[in-house]
Structures are given as C-alpha cells and as structure tokens.
Amino acid sequence: MAKKTYIQAITDALDIVLEDDPKTLIFGEDVGKNGGVFRTTQGLQEKYGEDRVFDTPLAESGIMGLATGLGLTGWRPIPEIQFMGFSFEAVDQIAGQLARMRFRFDGLKNAPVTIRTPYGGGTHTAEMHADNLENFFTGIPGLRVVMPSNPYDAKGLLISSVENNDPVLFMENLKLYRSMKDDIPDGKYTVPLDKANVVREGNDITIVAYGAEVNEALKVADTLAEKNISAEVIDLRTVSPIDTETIFKSIEKTHKVVVVQEAQKMAGVGAQVASAIAEGAILSLDAPVGRVAAPNSVYPFALGEDIWIPRAKEIEEKVNEILNY
Amino acid sequence: MANKPIVDFEAIKNNLSNVSKPIQVLNENAEITDQEIFDTFSDDDLVEFMKKMVWERALHEQTMNFSRQGRMGFYAPTEGEEASEMGTVLAMKKQDYLLPAYRDVPQLIQHGATVTEAYLWSRGNVVGNKFKARSMMPQIIIGAAYVEAAGVGLGIKKNKEEDTIAFTYTGDGGTSQGDSYEGMNFAGAYQAPVLFIVQNNGFAISTPRVKQTAAPTLAQKAVAAGIPSVQVDGMDILACYAVAKAARDYMVAGNGPVLIETLTYRFGAHSSAGDDPKRYRTKAEEQPWFEKDPLIRLRKVLEDKGLWSEEQEDKLVDEYKASFKEAIKEADAAPSDKVSDMLKRTFEIPTPEMKQEIDKFEAKESK
C-alpha cells in the first residue's frame, strides 16, 4: 500500500499488465524514452524493452490502424492518443474499424485494444487538448468507454480494460492527473467495467457523476451534510455501458436525482442517464431530473474554461432547486 | 541579378516524370518483351495463369448475371483486372495475411474463402465473413486497410513468423486518402513486411486518375515513406506475378515494405449498384484498353505453343460457372441473421442492458 497519484496509479497498472501478459504492447507518440508527455509510461521502455514499449510516427489514424493490425496478429495493444482532441484524426479507425471487429467476424477475430487518452478541463491547455469527447464516443456500439474519477479506480479499471477482449476507450482526466492521491494496494486488483460505485451513501437526493465531477459532487455532499441533508453520490466509472441498476436503486430511496457532467449538455451521457431514468424509474421520482452540464458551445479556449465548466457551485444550485421543487 | 533562379523548381518538377518504364513481360500483341522473366515460367505455369484468369472472368460474368437477377448485394465488377488481381495473389502463400478492398473478392477466394462465403459477404450475411483464410473482410473504407496492414506487418515481425508477409490492396483513388500514406509511413518506419498494391484502374468511380494527384505515378507515393516501389503492366499476368513474387522474396529475407502499382483498367462499371461508365468516358477512350485485355495476350501465347484451345476454355468456363451456380444455391440455404445474434456479437460479454434487449428479441424470434 502506498499513496499514489492518478498518473502513478496508471503507470502501476501498465507495469502489471506488461509483466502479466507478454502479448501486451504500449505505443504512441513519445511514450518510449520520454515516458509520455505526462510521464505516465515513465520507466516502462527501460524495464520491458523497445519491442514492448515504443514510439510511433506522429499520426493518430496510423496509431489506431497499427493497434487493429497488431490485435489481428495476436497482440494486446495499449495505444496512447496523446490528447483526446487528437482522436478526431482516428475516428474511422476507432468507430469504423476497431469497434466493429468482433461484430464483423462473429467473434472469430477480435481487437483487444485499450486506447488510453487524457481529456478534461481546468488545466488551461491549448485548443483541442481538453475536450470531453465521451458524448461522441459513447455513441459507438462495440466500444466500451471508461472514465475513472480517482487513482484507485484508475488502476483497477485499467487492468480490467486491458484484460477485456473488447476495445476500450480509457479516458484519463487531466485535472486529476496530479491533483489527488489515494492509497493504492500493491500488485494486481481489478474494478469491474459495468458497475457504478456508490461513493457516498445518503437518503435525500442522488447525485450521479463521473470523472472529475465526482469530486465536485462530494464537495457538495459535504456542504449539504452541514445542513443535515444527506446526498448519495454515484460514480458511474464506466459511461459505456452505464450501470442503470445502481442508479434506479438509489432513486427508489431518495426520490430525487441530479445528473452531472463536465461535457456539453447535448446528446450525451447525462442525457442517456436521464432518459434511462424516464424509461425505468420515473415513478420513483417526486421532482424532475436535474441536469448539470457545460453549455452547448464549442469547447472554450484556455481562459474560458473557468467560467464555462460546471463545478461544485453549479451542482449545489441545481441540487437546491430539485430539493426545493 | 543572375538569370538563373536560385532553385529551379520547374526542373525539379519535370524531373519527377523521369521514371522507369512499367515492368512488362508480354505486350498486348503477345510479344515477349522480357525474355529473362518469361523463361522463369514453365508451360504448366503459363497454363495455370491462364486458368486463373479464365476463372476470374467467369466469376465476374456469372456474378453479374446473379446481380441482374437480384441475387447479389453490393459487388464490384472485376473484368479487365484479372492479370493484376490473379498475378499478385498467386504470389501469396497460405500463411500470408490479406487485407483486401471491395474489388478484391477474387483474391479473397483464392486465399481460402469459398465462393459461397463471398456471395454471402456481398449479400450482407455475416456467415460470409466467417471464412478460415487469414484475411480481413473486403474493406469498404479505401485507405483503412493500409494502416491496418502496417499493424499486421509489425505483428508478423514481432511474432517472428517466418516466410510470412501481409498483402494489401487499394486503388488509384485510395492513394489520395491520408490513411494510405500513414500506413506506408508506419510500415516503413518499422520495416514491417507489407506488400502495398495499388491497382490503378484509371478511375475512382468517375474521377479519372489524372484528377487524383499531380504525382506522375502512384508508385512514387511510396518514395516519401522510404519504400521501394515499381510500376507494372497490370494487363500482363506474367509481369504482375513476377514482380509480386520478387517483392515477397525481398520481404521474407528480412526487409521492409514494397509498393507495386499495377496499370490496369476496369472494363465495366464501378459497382453493381447503378454506375454507368458512359457518363464519364467514351468508347474511344475505352477501346485501346479493351485491346489490352489480359486474357487475349496470354491466350495467344498458349495457342501458339499448342497448350490451349477454344474448346478447352469453353469447357473450363462451363465448369467454373456450374460451380458458381452451386455456390449461390448454398448461399441461398445459409441461415439468416437474427437481431439477438447481432447484439450478442457486439461485445464478448453483453452489457446488462443488451442482455435485456437480447431476451426481448429472442422471445420474438422464437415465435
């Protein structure tokens, strides 16, 4: 057991899967000698050699095509897309090719690929570095999308993702990379790819969140506790699939729900959660589904993030509105 | 001021057109233009090449008949491209990987898929994709196969698979896709054994080759990726085979990728789905290419050697077409797909929500 950052937890997971399975490969831009621009793959090339951990030419579609082809020849690739905004360059390879492999061949061939990529606002990066693109990628059948909110989950979910035979998009939150530490057990453990986590139990209202917003929701729960209001906070952990059972169970108890996301409001994870509730649990509710999401503008330039990204203040306002409905 | 420009860009540009002549063994008058390569083939080899082209032509004709009868799905006609397709695929070994595009169904069959499976693929029945061959299904996104081939090539190298390479195909239009460059560049960077084949049949649906690029040849597109490349007379099966085999031999000796551009021609429409070449090319433009028909020149050589006759060819065509009629009957008998199965094969283990959907559809399907 050791205190580790989100980045260190990911490095730890990568070290374990490289050690465990000689067929795993890590590749991407600057992941080798440089250890990745965030040092997530630090020391891994040194330890496992250039055959297992290697740099690629600077081309995202090429990286993903490489992953698909390596998957077809028996390897278990873990490619890195250096920043999630760059994944637009690889949309055909991800959506048009990789995610369809099992479907096309009725399981005779598959693509056990885990794509790691950093995303998420609040660190004032250059354009196309921070966009929350889960709304886009959860619309792709055949692709699992995983969004850990803390170092412990990051390690366990990453190991599960690599061991899973379906393609997984593993989204690493930039803001969380170095801002929080957890006690991380040594060695291997896994976190399931289809179970949400009740990170805080409560009776008065349910807050559903994922990624960096889980911590914001927990802050709000603390504030509410001071007023003797107990909020239950659910961390989705995976946004494709979404564990609706855990959400419904919570709503049956609290009868109120606020769904939080950092991404724009249109057609995404929060909308999916809200519609699932409307379909499957609406009679448990005694107030409308509250939603907190970013405005439907184009993702802002660095300085715009501070006024654009919804954080604890916006969640608290919405929670109070639903509580007082 | 000197009159001479600091850099003579015009001269550099003009120099790009200084390329070697395409490799050819038999010209369209059936004259041997490269005796050395020709002599590497036995009479049996020549007969085998002819049989393969007759097979592909028969496959094309019979499949187009099925298409007109409404018995096929999407199918890309191959008439005119027999030398390019059969010549290159005959250089493959069973253990090689194939990443074909949609006009490369004949190569997929040669590499181990059955005609029945090819027909089911065309119709859009998943049973057609369950072939045993080391091959992807025909790629629809031209260019995509090139990046995947780089991965397959690197996988072969990492697996230390001996005497094995990846073959991948695209067309003249496909070389305009960014992916085709990314694939070549990755394969070059990793020295992965991939044979990139560009079947330049003159048209991307209606857009002529000359409008795709200012590059004088498509083979040159490999140069920027550090890959050796060559143009071949794509209407000459002897040249196509010889060059593909030489490329394969070069790669299995431990070398990196090669690109071959075959200069060929699509005699008919782009696809079975209503394309009409009369809209974009004239009979006068087509005629010289029809005269280059790859079957004509090899047939003449064989007839002159007393190795081939019209009766023999007619008999073969009848046999082949009979086998295709059997294949389509088998395709007719294949089970149709079910929505529950579509859900089941999306993920290895269906998600809880999908399980509910599966139950719902299975209940309907059992009625």
Could you characterize what this model shows?
- With 325 residues, chain A is of the alpha/beta class.
- Chain A has two domains: 2-184, Thiamin diphosphate (ThDP)-binding fold, Pyr/PP domains (Rossmann fold, 3-Layer(aba) Sandwich), CATH 3.40.50; 197-323, Rossmann fold.
- Chain A has helices at residues 6-20, 44-48, 60-72, 91-97, 101-104, 134-137, 151-163, 213-226, 244-254, 269-280, 305-308, 312-323; strands at residues 2-5, 24-28, 53-55, 76-80, 114-119, 144-146, 168-173, 181-184, 197-200, 205-209, 231-235, 238-240, 257-264, 290-294.
- Chain A has a five-stranded mixed beta sheet with strand order 9-11-10-13-14, sandwiched between helices. Chain A has a four-stranded mixed beta sheet with strand order 5-7-6-12, with helices on one face.
- The longest helix of chain A is centred in the first third of the chain and has 15 residues, at 6-20.
- With 367 residues, chain B is α/β, with parallel strands linked by helices.
- Chain B has two domains: 22-336, Thiamin diphosphate (ThDP)-binding fold, Pyr/PP domains (Rossmann fold, 3-Layer(aba) Sandwich); 337-367, no CATH class.
- In chain B, the strands form two sheets. Chain B has a five-stranded parallel beta sheet with strand order 1-2-3-7-6, sandwiched between helices. In chain B, strands 4-5 form a two-stranded antiparallel sheet.
- In chain B, α8 (178-190) links the parallel β2 and β3.
- Chain B starts with 8 loop residues before the first helix and ends with a helix.
- Helix content of chain B is 47%, strand content 8%.
- Chain B is globular, with a radius of gyration of 22 Å.
